[in-house]
């Protein structure tokens, strides 16, 4: 175990194994949740389950071995919803082209992670814009969750309205939402997967969903979605902003998670320490493989904090977490029988957690205040992470110009604003 330098990190094998199991339980929910979200794009559910598990194992074990940090990785919440509901269903892009976008964003991510461009991107985009982006994505995925639960429905007169809360399926969704909130507030390990399990059992018990005839089976094939990406169709001027938004969002997600978990575990004492750089590199490499495997971008998971709280300090925690994901490969019948109203409450709760980033924003700066407003409202209302972020960038630059602070505008914000002009008024 000298590979992980356990003694130097003040830990041991038993502690790391327990930490790995804790992280596994905390993030197991991603398997049914990601499969439900991405299958909404028309991709086969069974293949997505296997691909999600494969990418979780690959990315998490890779990171554990490469960076020696206890950070687990899987398909990121937010971009998976944008993949299905924003790109495929919203813009009418085939899922094969959307996978091409994921792959190309991963290639750019690898290039950036190995060059000084990474540092330039991180330092020139204002922190408050990153926080607003996280909150906006939270609002976006929560909105999708509420829609899928039929708590919010469309209306010809007001665009949206409250759904029929007396409907049995809606009531089960509300119960799932209450359970997810309750278990999270009680800091129960595996709160999300527990809420999914309890809601599913209740739905089966009252007969509104059918129980599976058996719980176990051999893993489904990934072949229907693996290597099915269409890179050529993704390489169009119209989709360049989308590729860049996938890239930027993935970087924001990873850095935000690493900052939170790393601070608690004192993993990254320096801003650009070697473990931090290697974790970013592992995330970038995994995103490239994601596009090839047939799922949306991977990212570092905040649930890694659960393992850190149990004492996990090295890559052995991540390796244990990754290998434990071999177990759900054989639970496809169970995952297929999980009702959607047990799945989508998780999007609402995760969205609310991401929305809390707004409390850190400096609202005394008018440019930040108005940009944050347009980003957070723009993403759910335009049904697009891309449009919301570009709207916010345009407003940010405009307000700074109105204040005569053109020297304070960072190059990255100018580039995003110019992209906004191109997307909104030319393309």
Kindly report how far apart the N and C termini lie.
Answer: 55 Å
Strand order of the largest sheet: 1-4
Number of structural domains: 2
**How much of the residues is beta strand, in percent?**
under 5%
Low-confidence stretches: none
Helical content, roughly? 55-70%
Large-scale geometry? globular
Largest sheet: 2 strands, antiparallel
Please write the string of helix (H) and strand (E) elements. HHHEHHHHEEHHHHHEHHHHHHH
Describe the structure.
- The chain is mostly helical and 427 residues long.
- It has 2 domains: 2-147 and 219-336, no CATH class; 362-427, no CATH class.
- 65% of the residues lie in helices and 3% in strands.
- The protein has 19 helices and 4 strands.
- The protein has helices at residues 13-27, 30-39, 45-67, 79-88, 95-113, 117-124, 127-148, 168-185, 191-205, 231-234, 240-265, 274-293, 304-309, 315-324, 332-337, 340-355, 366-382, 385-402, 411-425; strands at 73-75, 152-155, 159-162, 298-300.
- A two-stranded antiparallel ribbon has the order 1-4.
- A hairpin with a 3-residue loop joins strand 2 and strand 3.
- The termini are far apart.
């Amino acid at each position: 175990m000298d590979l992980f330098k356990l003694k130097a990190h003040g830990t041991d094998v038993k502690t790391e194994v327990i930490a790995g199991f804790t992280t596994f339980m905390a993030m197991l929910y991603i398997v049914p949740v990601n499969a439900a979200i991405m299958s909404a794009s028309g991709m086969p559910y069974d293949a997505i389950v296997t691909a999600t598990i494969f990418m979780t194992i690959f990315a998490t074990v890779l990171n554990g071995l490469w960076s020696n940090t206890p950070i687990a990785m899987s398909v990121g919440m937010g971009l998976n919803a944008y993949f299905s509901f924003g790109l495929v269903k919203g813009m009418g892009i085939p899922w094969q082209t959307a996978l091409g976008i994921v792959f190309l964003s991963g290639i750019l991510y690898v290039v950036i992670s190995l060059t000084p461009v990474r540092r330039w991107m991180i330092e020139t985009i204002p922190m408050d814009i990153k926080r607003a982006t996280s909150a906006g994505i939270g609002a976006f995925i929560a909105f999708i969750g509420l829609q899928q639960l039929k708590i919010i429905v469309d209306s010809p007169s007001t665009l949206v309205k409250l759904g029929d809360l007396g409907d049995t399926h809606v009531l089960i969704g509300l119960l799932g939402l209450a359970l997810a909130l309750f278990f999270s507030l009680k800091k129960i390990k595996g709160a999300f997967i527990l809420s999914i399990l309890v809601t599913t059992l209740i739905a089966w018990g009252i007969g509104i969903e059918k129980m599976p005839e058996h719980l176990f089976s051999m893993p489904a094939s990934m072949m229907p979605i693996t290597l099915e990406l269409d890179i050529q169709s993704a390489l169009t001027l119209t989709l360049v902003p989308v590729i860049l938004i996938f890239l930027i969002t993935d970087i924001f997600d990873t850095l935000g998670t690493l900052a939170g978990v790393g601070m608690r575990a004192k993993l990254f004492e320096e801003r650009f320490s070697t473990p931090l750089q290697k974790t970013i590199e592992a995330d970038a490499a995994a995103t490239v493989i994601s596009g090839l495997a047939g799922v949306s971008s991977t990212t570092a998971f905040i649930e890694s904090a659960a393992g850190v709280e149990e004492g996990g300090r090295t890559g052995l925690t991540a390796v244990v977490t990754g290998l434990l994901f071999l177990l759900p490969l054989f639970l496809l019948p169970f995952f297929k029988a999980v009702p959607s109203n047990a799945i989508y409450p998780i999007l609402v709760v995760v969205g609310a957690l991401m929305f809390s980033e707004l409390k850190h924003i400096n609202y005394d700066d008018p440019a930040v205040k108005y940009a944050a407003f347009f980003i957070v409202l723009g993403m759910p209302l335009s049904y697009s992470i891309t449009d919301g972020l570009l709207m916010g960038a345009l407003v940010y630059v405009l307000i700074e110009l109105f204040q005569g602070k053109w020297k304070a505008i960072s190059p990255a914000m100018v580039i995003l604003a110019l992209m906004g002009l191109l997307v909104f008024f030319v393309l």
